Amino acid sequence: MPIDFTAFGQTAETADETRHPRDVFAALPRVPGYEYLRGPQDQVLDQWHSRRTESDLVVKLNTGGGKTVIGLLIAQCSLNDGAGPVAYLVPDHYLADQVRKEAASLGIAVTSDPTAYEYGAKRAVLVDVFQRLVNGKSIFGVGGSSSKSARFSVGTIIVDDAHACLAKAEDEFRVSIPSSEAQYALLLELFADVLEQQSPNTLLDIRAGDHSALLQVPHWAWHDRQRQVLEIIHPLTKEVPFAFGWPLIVDVLPLCRAVFARDVVEIAPDHLPIDVLTGFVAASRRVYLTATLADDGVLVKDFDADPNTIARPIAPANAGDIGDRLIIVPQEIAPAATEEHIRDMVIDIATERNVVVIVPSHARAEVWKERGALVFDKDSIKEGIERLRADARLGLVVLVNRYDGVDLPNDACHVLVIDGLPEAFGALERLDEAQLAGSDAMLRRQMQRIEQGMGRAVRSNDDYCVVLLMGARMTERLLLPGAEDALSPATRAQMKLSREIAVSIRGAGMAEMKSVVTQVLDRDKAWITASRSRLATLRYDSSEVDIVTRQRRAAFNLAARGRSSEAVAALQEALDRGGSDGVIRGQLLQEVASYQHPTNPVESQETQRAANEANRALLRPVVGVAYARLATPIQEQGAGASGWLQRKFRTGADLRLGFNALLGDLVFGPRTRHFEAAMDDLASPLGFAGQRPEIEIGRGPDNLWALNDNSFLIIEAKSGSEEHPVYKDDAKQLSNAMDWFREQYPMASGTPVLVHPWSTFDSKAAAPQRCRVLTTEKLFLLRDAIDQLATALADQDSFRDPVRVSQLLAHHGLTAQHLIARYTVDARRGR
Asked: Among 137, 162, 168, 139, which Cα is nearest to 248's?
């Protein structure tokens, strides 16, 4: 009869030794291909073993460095150590399947079922999705007033792809009530008075179904009306999906933000009250595996991890263990290249090999689909990945909003395109985007998301690919100071080398650019040597958690325990030591105000005023904010434009890229806030002055331009409208903006301008006197003129010559005297 050899596998004398990951690996019944640990893996596992009893550990390893093997060995060693049960958690089911396959190859016992005997008996590792632990009905236990007893325990938690799991956790700690639920309308009416105080225009937009309209409930009203909020929401709390998020936030509901959009109200805390998840908190070991988590402070912010251990990540001695990547920014090499030119080159490459394009939205994917691309989104991603891996000549494939959690090794993808900046879709995410606009924090978020996307195609240090980063706003962001600092050391080094190569071919056409791509893909030996030499001496960055992140988390924890004055003191330290970034300072002051309100509402309003002065995108205090009138330019238009352009751009090439980014947002469609921002950005390079009163003070037009002839344009932007003709509500908003203008500028001359696809007004819609309309046709003409102006200004750095700038503005009809006549039409009354 067969002998049970498991009884002979370990003795008391060898037990301690075989707890070291290296020895555990040697004893595993591995399949061929897993003969030895690579150097970086061995280094990481050795460090982990010496620090394994610390509660929060970050393990950093470049994409393709063998993180999964490391994580599984840590899991097995933790079982051997008596620190089980062990849960290995990933962002989605696709990755869970991949980890189980890897475990089978190593010979490590795993299960997908937490009820399995092997898991509870600490003989197998649970491999599952992160949401299994993080949800309001977690089988590992939920604390607080909605407590749920734990059915299963967990001693060690390993979080793979930690950056993606963070995003999943934020989703779980958010309650989203769609407008289809009666509670949405009840909440909107409950807060209608304070929302109108913030911005009557935006409240109208929300009720009218404007795609981009957003309003945050002021924290003072949210706090004071908690009883009514609870009464309204409570009937939903036992229903799916609300039953999964509500228990996680109910005990910190007064500390949450609530944001209304046209189709949803979202409610979530700034920091996750992670202690409500008793299984997570009770685990003696938590290990976070990451390739692209450059800012480890987010683990402190969201998971309340120990900042002292997080500041000492476990990493290999060398940070260069990554495959070869050439990173091309086509519009940096050829500023005159259009997106169509770039797509033509990409499609040409796709006739010979797989090309994967990652886009932020379905709208962006549609452009590629029209050119023959296969499109896969969250519902079909598994099929897409399987087809890419099975067929090296599948061709052009588009993945929608999938920047992480996808492996495309070897011939599955050697050319990767990131088309456009990652976009925010949720109401709270869009609010953050608006409030952090222009800050280092927002730049870091965007760059790290881009880096996650770039990691999809290089899954081992022997792999290679060419990455194309396209889109005008993408190019602009990449050139900003500090952009590359947000990247990991290996990606920074590859970006630097790629930039040097780009400089050597700047001004080249698409054919020459494709030739360089082909040279790299054909494994040119000189390229391989150059690439690997740049990576050979790299080291991982230190990860000190900044004082602002530490103190914000500490303040939230104190406030959640009802210790408001101590929370204010903690944030004051962050304000005193946190630098001078006005955007972040404003956010800190708003948090201080929210903690002050329960005990000192008068002082809270004074703090809120200071917050709004630091960052106009934040909440306005009860008594409003003072309006700073927009002065008309005193310089001649050409001189003013030239001076601004010289301060903004170093070279003609930089100018061209900046104008390309602006024109990318100056289009009709659902991204109306981006359109309004582009209109504001356009004023200065034309020699005018611009302002956004509706955003800044909650009153007035979307855009206000002061021309250099002492006149004004009062602009109401309805660039997202699909209605024909212009209806009463849109006309009324422009009339209200004109009333505001006459009140603020009683002696000035102003022209009302409506941005709308159509110039005909409904018979019931009253257009203001002298009303002009920037229609679809006229916007095309204006965009063409601006594009031609940018080309001429960039030529031989002509933007430095005020006389030449004046001549070009006049030639294109962009002067104060001719702008309105050439690029708008009279409003017409319909029948």
From this structure: 137
